[in-house]
Amino acid sequence: MAFFTIVLAAGEGTRMRSTRAKVAHELLGKPLIRWVVDAAKSAESDAVITVVGHAREQVIPLIENDTIVVVQEQRLGTGHAIMIARETLLEQEQKSLGQTRETREHKTQEPEAREDGRAASLVVLCGDTPLITAQTIATLAASQQEDGAAACVLTHILDDPTGYGRIIRDEKDALVRIVEEKDATPAERAVKECNSGAYCFDLAILLENVRELDKNNAQGEYYLTDIIEKLVAKGLPVTAHLTDAEQTQGINSRAQLAQATKAMQRRVNATHLDAGVTMLDPELVWIGPDVSLEHDVEILPLTFLNGTTRVARGSVLGPNTRVTDCVIGKDCQVEESVLVEAVLEDGVSCGPRAYLRPGTVMKAGSKAGTHVEIKNSTVGPGSKVPHLSYLGDTQLGEDVNIGAGAITCNYDGFSKNQTTIGDRSFIGSDTMLVAPVTVGSDTVTGAGSVITDDVPDGALAVERTRQHIVKGWAREHVKKKTRGREMKSSRMRKKEKPQ
Length: 499
Ligand code: UD1
Ligand code: CA
Fold this sequence. Notes:
This protein is an alpha/beta fold. Helix 1 crosses helix 6 (134-147).
Protein backbone atom coordinates (compact mmCIF):
# COMPACT_ATOMS: atom_id res chain seq x y z
CA MET A 1 0.00 0.00 0.00
CA ALA A 2 1.29 3.38 -0.96
CA PHE A 3 2.58 5.85 1.57
CA PHE A 4 4.97 8.78 1.80
CA THR A 5 7.71 9.23 4.34
CA ILE A 6 9.01 12.34 6.06
CA VAL A 7 12.33 12.15 7.87
CA LEU A 8 12.87 14.80 10.55
CA ALA A 9 16.51 15.82 10.74
CA ALA A 10 16.67 19.53 11.50
CA GLY A 11 17.74 19.19 15.14
CA GLU A 12 21.12 20.11 16.49
CA GLY A 13 22.37 17.05 18.35
CA THR A 14 24.40 18.99 20.92
CA ARG A 15 25.19 15.88 22.96
CA MET A 16 27.38 14.53 20.15
CA ARG A 17 29.79 17.44 20.87
CA SER A 18 30.70 17.65 17.24
CA THR A 19 31.26 20.16 14.48
CA ARG A 20 29.66 17.61 12.21
CA ALA A 21 25.88 17.46 11.84
CA LYS A 22 24.53 14.62 13.98
CA VAL A 23 22.78 12.78 11.15
CA ALA A 24 25.94 13.02 9.01
CA HIS A 25 27.84 10.87 11.51
CA GLU A 26 28.49 7.43 10.11
CA LEU A 27 27.49 3.99 11.27
CA LEU A 28 29.47 1.24 9.50
CA GLY A 29 30.52 3.86 6.96
CA LYS A 30 27.03 5.09 6.09
CA PRO A 31 25.60 8.41 7.39
CA LEU A 32 22.82 8.01 9.96
CA ILE A 33 20.25 9.78 7.81
CA ARG A 34 21.06 7.51 4.83
CA TRP A 35 20.21 4.44 6.90
CA VAL A 36 16.77 5.92 7.61
CA VAL A 37 16.13 7.12 4.04
CA ASP A 38 17.30 3.78 2.59
CA ALA A 39 15.05 1.84 4.98
CA ALA A 40 12.06 3.95 3.86
CA LYS A 41 12.99 3.35 0.22
CA SER A 42 13.30 -0.40 0.68
CA ALA A 43 9.90 -0.34 2.38
CA GLU A 44 8.71 1.09 -0.97
CA SER A 45 7.77 4.50 0.27
CA ASP A 46 6.48 6.59 -2.65
CA ALA A 47 8.42 9.77 -2.02
CA VAL A 48 10.74 10.60 0.83
CA ILE A 49 10.79 14.13 2.20
CA THR A 50 13.61 15.23 4.49
CA VAL A 51 13.41 18.18 6.87
CA VAL A 52 16.83 19.72 7.45
CA GLY A 53 17.99 22.76 9.40
CA HIS A 54 21.03 22.71 11.63
CA ALA A 55 24.30 22.25 9.67
CA ARG A 56 22.24 21.56 6.58
CA GLU A 57 25.15 22.27 4.22
CA GLN A 58 26.57 18.96 5.50
CA VAL A 59 23.29 17.07 5.39
CA ILE A 60 21.78 18.16 2.06
CA PRO A 61 24.51 16.62 -0.14
CA LEU A 62 23.80 13.26 1.47
CA ILE A 63 20.14 13.18 0.51
CA GLU A 64 19.39 15.69 -2.23
CA ASN A 65 19.56 13.14 -5.05
CA ASP A 66 16.73 10.98 -3.90
CA THR A 67 14.64 12.91 -1.39
CA ILE A 68 12.68 16.14 -1.46
CA VAL A 69 14.50 18.50 0.87
CA VAL A 70 12.58 20.99 3.01
CA VAL A 71 14.49 23.53 5.10
CA GLN A 72 13.29 24.36 8.60
CA GLU A 73 15.00 27.68 9.35
CA GLN A 74 13.81 27.95 12.96
CA ARG A 75 13.56 24.73 14.92
CA LEU A 76 10.35 25.14 16.85
CA GLY A 77 9.68 21.45 17.45
CA THR A 78 8.65 18.24 15.71
CA GLY A 79 5.13 19.58 15.10
CA HIS A 80 6.60 22.70 13.49
CA ALA A 81 8.75 20.51 11.21
CA ILE A 82 5.54 18.99 9.82
CA MET A 83 3.89 22.43 9.50
CA ILE A 84 6.68 23.80 7.32
CA ALA A 85 6.57 20.71 5.06
CA ARG A 86 2.85 21.22 4.48
CA GLU A 87 3.05 22.56 0.91
CA THR A 88 5.46 19.84 -0.12
CA LEU A 89 3.23 17.17 1.38
CA LEU A 90 0.19 18.56 -0.42
CA GLU A 91 2.12 18.55 -3.71
CA GLN A 92 3.10 14.93 -3.22
CA GLU A 93 -0.42 14.01 -2.38
CA GLN A 94 -1.64 15.68 -5.57
CA LYS A 95 1.02 14.00 -7.68
CA SER A 96 -0.08 10.68 -6.33
CA LEU A 97 -3.64 11.49 -7.36
CA GLY A 98 -2.35 12.24 -10.85
CA GLN A 99 -3.59 15.79 -10.81
CA THR A 100 -1.71 19.00 -11.44
CA ARG A 101 -1.56 21.63 -8.75
CA GLU A 102 -3.36 24.19 -10.94
CA THR A 103 -6.52 22.16 -11.33
CA ARG A 104 -6.52 21.31 -7.65
CA GLU A 105 -6.34 24.94 -6.53
CA HIS A 106 -9.82 25.59 -7.89
CA LYS A 107 -11.15 22.95 -5.59
CA THR A 108 -9.77 22.76 -2.08
CA GLN A 109 -6.62 23.32 -0.07
CA GLU A 110 -6.99 19.99 1.67
CA PRO A 111 -5.89 16.59 0.41
CA GLU A 112 -8.56 14.38 -1.02
CA ALA A 113 -9.34 10.74 -0.84
CA ARG A 114 -7.74 8.58 -3.52
CA GLU A 115 -9.77 6.95 -6.23
CA ASP A 116 -9.46 3.66 -4.38
CA GLY A 117 -11.21 5.34 -1.45
CA ARG A 118 -8.15 5.39 0.77
CA ALA A 119 -6.51 8.54 2.02
CA ALA A 120 -2.79 8.87 1.56
CA SER A 121 -0.59 7.86 4.50
CA LEU A 122 2.49 9.59 5.83
CA VAL A 123 5.15 7.78 7.81
CA VAL A 124 7.14 10.10 10.09
CA LEU A 125 10.66 9.00 11.05
CA CYS A 126 13.55 10.62 12.90
CA GLY A 127 16.84 11.02 11.03
CA ASP A 128 18.79 9.75 14.01
CA THR A 129 17.25 6.25 14.32
CA PRO A 130 19.36 4.24 11.86
CA LEU A 131 18.37 0.82 13.21
CA ILE A 132 14.76 0.97 12.08
CA THR A 133 14.15 -1.67 9.41
CA ALA A 134 12.24 -1.51 6.14
CA GLN A 135 10.08 -4.34 7.48
CA THR A 136 9.02 -2.29 10.52
CA ILE A 137 8.25 0.77 8.39
CA ALA A 138 6.12 -1.31 6.01
CA THR A 139 4.30 -2.97 8.93
CA LEU A 140 3.66 0.40 10.59
CA ALA A 141 2.11 1.78 7.38
CA ALA A 142 0.09 -1.39 6.76
CA SER A 143 -1.18 -1.35 10.33
CA GLN A 144 -2.42 2.26 10.07
CA GLN A 145 -4.03 1.61 6.70
CA GLU A 146 -5.66 -1.72 7.55
CA ASP A 147 -7.14 -0.33 10.78
CA GLY A 148 -8.24 2.83 9.00
CA ALA A 149 -6.56 4.68 11.86
CA ALA A 150 -5.97 8.42 11.93
CA ALA A 151 -2.57 7.62 13.42
CA CYS A 152 -0.55 4.61 14.42
CA VAL A 153 2.31 5.24 16.86
CA LEU A 154 5.36 2.99 16.89
CA THR A 155 6.20 2.24 20.53
CA HIS A 156 8.77 0.26 22.47
CA ILE A 157 9.20 -0.81 26.08
CA LEU A 158 12.29 0.06 28.11
CA ASP A 159 13.22 -0.63 31.72
CA ASP A 160 14.80 2.79 31.72
CA PRO A 161 12.61 5.01 29.54
CA THR A 162 14.49 8.21 30.43
CA GLY A 163 14.35 10.83 27.70
CA TYR A 164 11.44 9.39 25.76
CA GLY A 165 7.85 10.57 25.54
CA ARG A 166 5.56 8.17 27.46
CA ILE A 167 2.56 6.35 26.02
CA ILE A 168 -0.50 7.00 28.16
CA ARG A 169 -3.33 4.49 27.88
CA ASP A 170 -6.82 4.49 29.44
CA GLU A 171 -8.36 1.75 31.57
CA LYS A 172 -9.34 -0.09 28.38
CA ASP A 173 -5.68 -0.01 27.31
CA ALA A 174 -6.42 2.39 24.45
CA LEU A 175 -3.80 5.00 23.60
CA VAL A 176 -5.04 8.39 24.71
CA ARG A 177 -2.02 10.68 24.53
CA ILE A 178 1.75 10.98 24.58
CA VAL A 179 3.37 12.99 27.33
CA GLU A 180 6.91 14.33 27.03
CA GLU A 181 9.18 13.51 29.94
CA LYS A 182 9.63 17.16 30.88
CA ASP A 183 5.85 17.61 31.11
CA ALA A 184 5.08 14.28 32.79
CA THR A 185 3.83 13.68 36.34
CA PRO A 186 5.83 11.17 38.44
CA ALA A 187 3.16 8.54 37.74
CA GLU A 188 3.42 9.15 33.99
CA ARG A 189 7.19 8.98 34.15
CA ALA A 190 6.94 5.49 35.64
CA VAL A 191 5.35 4.25 32.40
CA LYS A 192 7.77 2.06 30.47
CA GLU A 193 6.10 2.16 27.09
CA CYS A 194 7.78 4.88 25.04
CA ASN A 195 7.06 6.88 21.95
CA SER A 196 9.68 5.78 19.42
CA GLY A 197 9.23 9.00 17.44
CA ALA A 198 7.97 7.07 14.39
CA TYR A 199 4.33 7.21 13.32
CA CYS A 200 2.07 6.61 10.37
CA PHE A 201 -0.66 9.20 9.89
CA ASP A 202 -3.62 9.64 7.61
CA LEU A 203 -2.02 12.55 5.75
CA ALA A 204 -5.18 14.63 5.35
CA ILE A 205 -6.08 14.31 9.02
CA LEU A 206 -2.53 15.15 10.09
CA LEU A 207 -2.36 18.32 8.00
CA GLU A 208 -5.77 19.43 9.25
CA ASN A 209 -4.82 19.01 12.91
CA VAL A 210 -1.19 20.05 12.91
CA ARG A 211 -2.27 23.67 12.58
CA GLU A 212 -3.95 23.51 15.97
CA LEU A 213 -0.77 22.67 17.89
CA ASP A 214 0.49 25.18 20.46
CA LYS A 215 3.67 25.74 22.45
CA ASN A 216 2.17 25.59 25.94
CA ASN A 217 4.59 23.04 27.34
CA ALA A 218 7.83 22.72 29.28
CA GLN A 219 10.04 23.14 26.18
CA GLY A 220 7.98 25.87 24.48
CA GLU A 221 7.92 23.78 21.26
CA TYR A 222 5.23 22.62 18.87
CA TYR A 223 5.11 18.95 19.86
CA LEU A 224 4.00 16.58 17.10
CA THR A 225 3.07 14.22 19.91
CA ASP A 226 0.24 16.55 21.02
CA ILE A 227 -1.63 15.57 17.85
CA ILE A 228 -2.54 12.22 19.40
CA GLU A 229 -4.61 13.73 22.20
CA LYS A 230 -6.39 16.00 19.69
CA LEU A 231 -7.30 13.07 17.43
CA VAL A 232 -8.56 11.02 20.37
CA ALA A 233 -10.66 14.00 21.59
CA LYS A 234 -12.28 14.14 18.14
CA GLY A 235 -13.15 10.47 18.41
CA LEU A 236 -10.78 9.43 15.62
CA PRO A 237 -9.18 5.98 15.84
CA VAL A 238 -5.59 6.03 17.07
CA THR A 239 -3.53 2.86 17.46
CA ALA A 240 -0.08 1.79 18.61
CA HIS A 241 2.32 -0.75 17.17
CA LEU A 242 4.93 -2.21 19.52
CA THR A 243 8.42 -2.95 18.27
CA ASP A 244 11.74 -3.96 19.85
CA ALA A 245 13.64 -1.10 21.48
CA GLU A 246 16.79 -1.73 19.45
CA GLN A 247 15.14 -0.57 16.24
CA THR A 248 14.01 2.75 17.58
CA GLN A 249 17.16 3.56 19.55
CA GLY A 250 17.96 7.20 18.77
CA ILE A 251 21.55 8.39 18.47
CA ASN A 252 22.11 11.38 20.70
CA SER A 253 25.64 10.75 21.97
CA ARG A 254 28.85 9.04 20.96
CA ALA A 255 28.10 6.26 23.42
CA GLN A 256 24.79 5.58 21.68
CA LEU A 257 26.54 5.71 18.30
CA ALA A 258 28.95 3.02 19.52
CA GLN A 259 26.05 0.89 20.82
CA ALA A 260 24.18 1.24 17.54
CA THR A 261 27.31 0.30 15.62
CA LYS A 262 27.53 -2.91 17.66
CA ALA A 263 23.88 -3.69 16.98
CA MET A 264 24.21 -3.05 13.25
CA GLN A 265 27.47 -5.02 13.08
CA ARG A 266 25.67 -7.97 14.69
CA ARG A 267 22.82 -7.69 12.18
CA VAL A 268 25.01 -7.38 9.09
CA ASN A 269 27.35 -10.17 10.17
CA ALA A 270 24.45 -12.50 10.98
CA THR A 271 23.24 -12.12 7.39
CA HIS A 272 26.68 -13.03 6.02
CA LEU A 273 27.08 -15.97 8.41
CA ASP A 274 23.69 -17.28 7.27
CA ALA A 275 24.83 -16.93 3.66
CA GLY A 276 27.90 -19.13 4.24
CA VAL A 277 30.68 -16.75 5.25
CA THR A 278 33.07 -17.93 7.97
CA MET A 279 34.19 -15.55 10.72
CA LEU A 280 36.50 -16.64 13.47
CA ASP A 281 35.00 -13.95 15.71
CA PRO A 282 32.09 -11.93 14.27
CA GLU A 283 32.52 -9.27 16.95
CA LEU A 284 35.90 -8.40 15.47
CA VAL A 285 34.75 -8.02 11.88
CA TRP A 286 33.14 -4.85 10.54
CA ILE A 287 31.33 -5.06 7.21
CA GLY A 288 29.62 -2.10 5.53
CA PRO A 289 26.03 -2.38 4.29
CA ASP A 290 26.96 -2.29 0.60
CA VAL A 291 29.60 -5.00 0.73
CA SER A 292 28.81 -8.31 -0.96
CA LEU A 293 30.44 -11.61 -0.07
CA GLU A 294 30.01 -14.98 -1.71
CA HIS A 295 29.74 -18.19 0.27
CA ASP A 296 32.95 -19.74 1.62
CA VAL A 297 34.64 -16.40 2.08
CA GLU A 298 36.54 -16.44 5.37
CA ILE A 299 37.15 -13.34 7.44
CA LEU A 300 39.68 -13.21 10.25
CA PRO A 301 39.61 -10.77 13.19
CA LEU A 302 40.21 -7.03 12.98
CA THR A 303 39.07 -6.83 9.40
CA PHE A 304 37.08 -3.91 7.97
CA LEU A 305 35.28 -4.31 4.65
CA ASN A 306 33.93 -0.98 3.41
CA GLY A 307 32.16 0.73 0.54
CA THR A 308 31.11 -1.35 -2.43
CA THR A 309 33.66 -4.12 -1.88
CA ARG A 310 32.80 -7.47 -3.48
CA VAL A 311 34.54 -10.72 -2.60
CA ALA A 312 34.16 -14.00 -4.48
CA ARG A 313 34.07 -17.44 -2.91
CA GLY A 314 37.04 -19.11 -1.26
CA SER A 315 38.93 -15.91 -0.47
CA VAL A 316 40.43 -15.38 2.98
CA LEU A 317 40.72 -11.84 4.32
CA GLY A 318 42.56 -10.76 7.46
CA PRO A 319 43.58 -10.67 10.16
CA ASN A 320 44.07 -6.94 10.58
CA THR A 321 42.99 -5.88 7.11
CA ARG A 322 41.06 -2.96 5.65
CA VAL A 323 39.43 -3.25 2.21
CA THR A 324 37.53 -0.31 0.71
CA ASP A 325 35.72 -0.30 -2.66
CA CYS A 326 37.61 -3.30 -4.03
CA VAL A 327 36.70 -6.23 -6.23
CA ILE A 328 38.31 -9.47 -5.05
CA GLY A 329 38.11 -12.64 -7.08
CA LYS A 330 37.98 -16.30 -6.05
CA ASP A 331 40.52 -17.95 -3.74
CA CYS A 332 42.54 -14.86 -2.92
CA GLN A 333 44.55 -14.44 0.29
CA VAL A 334 44.76 -10.96 1.80
CA GLU A 335 46.65 -10.81 5.08
CA GLU A 336 47.34 -7.73 7.26
CA SER A 337 46.89 -5.38 4.34
CA VAL A 338 45.15 -2.18 3.28
CA LEU A 339 43.40 -2.22 -0.11
CA VAL A 340 41.63 0.80 -1.59
CA GLU A 341 39.87 0.80 -4.99
CA ALA A 342 41.91 -2.17 -6.16
CA VAL A 343 40.91 -5.14 -8.30
CA LEU A 344 42.21 -8.62 -7.49
CA GLU A 345 41.49 -11.36 -10.00
CA ASP A 346 41.28 -15.01 -8.93
CA GLY A 347 44.03 -16.61 -6.85
CA VAL A 348 45.87 -13.40 -5.93
CA SER A 349 47.96 -13.31 -2.79
CA CYS A 350 48.48 -10.10 -0.91
CA GLY A 351 50.48 -9.28 2.23
CA PRO A 352 51.34 -9.61 4.99
CA ARG A 353 51.45 -5.80 5.06
CA ALA A 354 50.76 -4.80 1.50
CA TYR A 355 49.18 -1.45 0.60
CA LEU A 356 47.27 -1.54 -2.68
CA ARG A 357 46.08 1.94 -3.63
CA PRO A 358 43.52 3.12 -6.20
CA GLY A 359 43.98 1.86 -9.72
CA THR A 360 45.83 -1.31 -8.79
CA VAL A 361 44.85 -4.35 -10.84
CA MET A 362 46.31 -7.68 -9.76
CA LYS A 363 45.77 -10.19 -12.57
CA ALA A 364 45.06 -13.86 -11.88
CA GLY A 365 47.60 -15.66 -9.74
CA SER A 366 49.76 -12.61 -9.10
CA LYS A 367 51.29 -11.64 -5.78
CA ALA A 368 51.94 -8.45 -3.80
CA GLY A 369 53.94 -9.53 -0.77
CA THR A 370 55.39 -8.03 2.38
CA HIS A 371 55.71 -4.25 2.68
CA VAL A 372 54.76 -3.76 -0.94
CA GLU A 373 52.96 -0.60 -2.08
CA ILE A 374 51.30 -0.44 -5.49
CA LYS A 375 49.20 2.33 -7.04
CA ASN A 376 47.68 2.89 -10.46
CA SER A 377 49.43 -0.17 -11.87
CA THR A 378 48.64 -3.52 -13.41
CA VAL A 379 50.50 -6.60 -12.23
CA GLY A 380 50.20 -9.20 -15.00
CA PRO A 381 49.04 -12.81 -14.59
CA GLY A 382 51.38 -14.87 -12.42
CA SER A 383 53.72 -11.93 -11.77
CA LYS A 384 55.26 -11.59 -8.32
CA VAL A 385 56.18 -8.53 -6.29
CA PRO A 386 57.15 -10.36 -3.12
CA HIS A 387 59.09 -7.96 -0.86
CA LEU A 388 59.62 -4.29 -0.05
CA SER A 389 58.74 -2.75 -3.42
CA TYR A 390 56.91 0.34 -4.64
CA LEU A 391 55.23 0.26 -8.04
CA GLY A 392 53.51 3.42 -9.27
CA ASP A 393 52.04 3.97 -12.75
CA THR A 394 53.44 0.66 -13.94
CA GLN A 395 52.36 -2.02 -16.38
CA LEU A 396 53.82 -5.44 -15.63
CA GLY A 397 53.45 -8.24 -18.14
CA GLU A 398 52.97 -11.89 -17.18
CA ASP A 399 55.27 -13.98 -15.01
CA VAL A 400 57.48 -11.04 -14.13
CA ASN A 401 59.53 -11.29 -10.96
CA ILE A 402 60.35 -8.11 -9.08
CA GLY A 403 63.32 -8.61 -6.74
CA ALA A 404 63.26 -7.48 -3.12
CA GLY A 405 63.43 -3.73 -2.71
CA ALA A 406 63.11 -2.89 -6.42
CA ILE A 407 61.03 0.24 -7.00
CA THR A 408 59.74 2.51 -9.70
CA CYS A 409 60.82 6.16 -9.48
CA ASN A 410 57.59 7.39 -11.04
CA TYR A 411 57.63 10.99 -9.83
CA ASP A 412 60.25 13.47 -10.94
CA GLY A 413 58.89 16.26 -8.78
CA PHE A 414 56.71 17.61 -11.58
CA SER A 415 54.73 14.75 -13.05
CA LYS A 416 54.01 11.05 -12.74
CA ASN A 417 55.69 8.89 -15.38
CA GLN A 418 55.00 5.40 -16.70
CA THR A 419 57.09 2.25 -16.35
CA THR A 420 56.45 -0.75 -18.58
CA ILE A 421 57.98 -4.19 -17.97
CA GLY A 422 57.55 -7.01 -20.49
CA ASP A 423 56.61 -10.66 -19.89
CA ARG A 424 58.93 -13.03 -18.00
CA SER A 425 61.37 -10.29 -17.04
CA PHE A 426 63.47 -10.62 -13.91
CA ILE A 427 64.06 -7.32 -12.15
CA GLY A 428 67.04 -7.70 -9.82
CA SER A 429 66.78 -6.76 -6.17
CA ASP A 430 66.98 -3.05 -5.42
CA THR A 431 66.66 -2.01 -9.06
CA MET A 432 65.56 1.61 -9.41
CA LEU A 433 63.39 1.99 -12.50
CA VAL A 434 63.50 5.71 -13.34
CA ALA A 435 60.33 6.48 -15.27
CA PRO A 436 59.46 7.01 -18.02
CA VAL A 437 61.15 3.77 -18.95
CA THR A 438 60.30 0.62 -20.87
CA VAL A 439 61.89 -2.71 -20.05
CA GLY A 440 61.28 -5.34 -22.73
CA SER A 441 60.22 -9.00 -22.41
CA ASP A 442 62.57 -11.75 -21.19
CA THR A 443 65.00 -9.23 -19.72
CA VAL A 444 67.14 -9.21 -16.59
CA THR A 445 68.34 -6.19 -14.63
CA GLY A 446 71.33 -6.50 -12.32
CA ALA A 447 70.68 -6.06 -8.61
CA GLY A 448 71.14 -2.48 -7.50
CA SER A 449 70.98 -1.03 -11.02
CA VAL A 450 69.49 2.37 -11.70
CA ILE A 451 67.66 1.90 -14.98
CA THR A 452 67.16 5.17 -16.82
CA ASP A 453 67.19 3.94 -20.43
CA ASP A 454 64.86 1.53 -22.18
CA VAL A 455 65.97 -2.13 -22.16
CA PRO A 456 65.40 -4.13 -25.38
CA ASP A 457 63.75 -7.59 -25.35
CA GLY A 458 65.99 -10.40 -24.16
CA ALA A 459 68.74 -8.09 -22.81
CA LEU A 460 70.57 -7.84 -19.50
CA ALA A 461 70.85 -4.31 -18.12
CA VAL A 462 73.42 -3.65 -15.41
CA GLU A 463 74.21 -0.21 -14.09
CA ARG A 464 76.79 -0.20 -11.27
CA THR A 465 80.59 0.20 -10.79
CA ARG A 466 82.74 -2.94 -10.86
CA GLN A 467 83.48 -4.55 -7.53
CA HIS A 468 86.94 -3.62 -6.13
CA ILE A 469 89.05 -6.14 -4.07
CA VAL A 470 91.88 -5.07 -1.68
CA LYS A 471 93.51 -8.26 -0.48
CA GLY A 472 94.18 -8.59 3.29
CA TRP A 473 92.78 -5.13 4.06
CA ALA A 474 89.98 -6.36 6.29
CA ARG A 475 92.17 -8.71 8.33
CA GLU A 476 94.56 -5.81 9.14
CA HIS A 477 91.59 -3.65 10.00
CA VAL A 478 90.29 -6.21 12.48
CA LYS A 479 93.69 -6.58 14.11
CA LYS A 480 94.01 -2.82 14.61
CA LYS A 481 90.61 -2.72 16.23
CA THR A 482 91.43 -5.57 18.63
CA ARG A 483 94.73 -3.98 19.68
CA GLY A 484 93.03 -0.67 20.38
CA ARG A 485 90.42 -2.35 22.56
CA GLU A 486 93.06 -4.22 24.59
CA MET A 487 95.06 -1.02 25.31
CA LYS A 488 91.90 0.78 26.44
CA SER A 489 90.88 -1.94 28.90
CA SER A 490 94.40 -2.23 30.46
CA ARG A 491 94.36 1.55 31.09
CA MET A 492 91.02 1.15 32.83
CA ARG A 493 92.32 -1.66 35.08
CA LYS A 494 95.26 0.48 36.26
CA LYS A 495 92.93 3.31 37.19
CA GLU A 496 90.68 1.01 39.20
CA LYS A 497 93.54 -0.51 41.30
CA PRO A 498 93.63 0.82 44.92
CA GLN A 499 96.76 2.99 45.56
C1 UD1 B 1 10.79 13.12 20.37
C2 UD1 B 1 9.36 12.91 20.83
C3 UD1 B 1 9.35 11.91 21.99
C4 UD1 B 1 9.98 10.60 21.52
C5 UD1 B 1 11.38 10.86 20.98
C6 UD1 B 1 11.92 9.61 20.34
C7 UD1 B 1 8.29 15.05 20.42
C8 UD1 B 1 7.76 16.29 21.02
N1 UD1 B 1 8.81 14.16 21.23
O1 UD1 B 1 11.48 13.68 21.46
O2 UD1 B 1 8.02 11.68 22.40
O3 UD1 B 1 10.03 9.70 22.60
O4 UD1 B 1 11.34 11.87 19.95
O5 UD1 B 1 13.25 9.78 20.00
O6 UD1 B 1 8.19 14.87 19.23
N2 UD1 B 1 13.41 17.83 14.74
C9 UD1 B 1 13.25 18.66 13.67
N3 UD1 B 1 12.81 19.93 13.86
C10 UD1 B 1 12.54 20.41 15.10
C11 UD1 B 1 12.73 19.55 16.20
C12 UD1 B 1 13.15 18.27 15.99
O7 UD1 B 1 13.48 18.26 12.52
O8 UD1 B 1 12.16 21.59 15.20
C13 UD1 B 1 13.88 16.45 14.50
C14 UD1 B 1 15.19 16.14 15.19
O9 UD1 B 1 16.30 16.40 14.34
C15 UD1 B 1 15.06 14.65 15.48
C16 UD1 B 1 13.57 14.46 15.65
O10 UD1 B 1 12.96 15.57 15.05
O11 UD1 B 1 15.52 13.85 14.42
C17 UD1 B 1 13.17 14.35 17.10
O12 UD1 B 1 13.52 15.55 17.76
P1 UD1 B 1 14.15 15.58 19.20
O13 UD1 B 1 14.34 16.99 19.62
O14 UD1 B 1 15.30 14.67 19.27
O15 UD1 B 1 12.93 14.98 20.00
P2 UD1 B 1 12.94 14.33 21.42
O16 UD1 B 1 13.02 15.41 22.42
O17 UD1 B 1 13.96 13.26 21.46
CA1 CA C 1 14.22 17.59 22.16
